[in-house]
Specification:
240 residues; alpha+beta; Serine Threonine Protein Phosphatase 5, Tetratricopeptide repeat; SH3 type barrels; five-stranded antiparallel beta sheet; two-stranded antiparallel ribbon; 8 helices; 58% helix
Length: 240
């Protein structure tokens, strides 16, 4: 019975994969023919079956860019970058950000913080994890092989610790941080999670925020310049 279940699951998975590839091809054809709304529907059909990929989100971002839906374009480019960092996606994201109203200047980073962020973003979190595991395994194999050069083993252990720290930082940056894109045309950030509190600043469609806390249908957000406040969760779309 278990073998039959496994076989049926494998067949179903193959059928879903084939269907997803077919829909992706159809979406690409419609995009090439400038039928961006139709292409979007094909791509969305793939996501309904939980078959996400960096390329799929990238193509959806391009569709929304062509229809001037900046918030959706930014959201999908950001989702694409969560799965895989790509120079074209970064360029399209920056180009789309020029189309929105808000120009939020980030707090200048100290040189070592900037350098560290560049390092952890050099590769994806998954690649850093693989490199860390490989380094640990190599160190263990050499140790059990009674390799005599202690300084080499020490260097491997040090490298493994560094890679482990980089992997942890990359995970915190790319997966543990909860972010969202504003979808309302205008939303007001308040000093407290209530409509009667003080209005602090306004945000517009397409702006990116970091979610710090949540109470009911209110979320506490922080923007790149350090300002924070409370907005309705319905005014944004969460990235994770």
């Amino acid at each position: 019975m278990k073998k039959i279940t496994c076989l049926l699951s494998s067949i179903l998975l193959c059928m879903q994969t084939f269907a997803g590839e077919h829909l992706f091809t159809q979406g690409n054809e419609e995009y090439a023919n400038e039928n961006y709304s139709v292409a979007t529907s094909y791509y969305d059909s793939i996501l309904i079956n939980q078959m996400e990929s960096s390329e799929l989100y990238y193509n959806l971002g391009n569709c929304y860019y062509k229809t001037q839906d900046w918030a959706n374009a930014i959201w999908h480019y950001e989702k694409s970058l969560q799965l895989k960092r790509n120079e074209k996606t970064l360029q399209n994201l920056e180009l789309t950000r020029l189309k929105i109203i808000d120009r939020i200047e980030p707090i200048p980073q100290l040189f070592y913080k900037k350098w560290w962020n560049s390092l952890i973003n050099l590769l994806s979190t998954k690649i850093w994890q693989i490199l860390t595991i490989l380094c640990i395994w190599i160190a263990l194999i050499i140790r059990f092989a009674n390799y005599k050069k202690d300084y080499f083993l020490t260097s491997l252990h040090t490298l493994a610790l560094i890679l482990l720290f980089i992997t942890y930082s990359s995970y915190q940056e790319n997966y543990n941080k909860k972010e969202a894109i504003i979808f309302s045309s205008t939303t007001i950030a308040n000093s407290a999670p209530t409509n009667n509190s003080t209005n602090l600043f306004s945000l517009h469609s397409g702006s990116k925020v970091e979610i710090i806390d949540a109470i009911g249908d209110w979320i506490n957000i922080k923007i790149a310049n350090g300002n924070n406040g409370w907005i309705k969760e319905s005014d944004c779309k969460i990235l994770q």
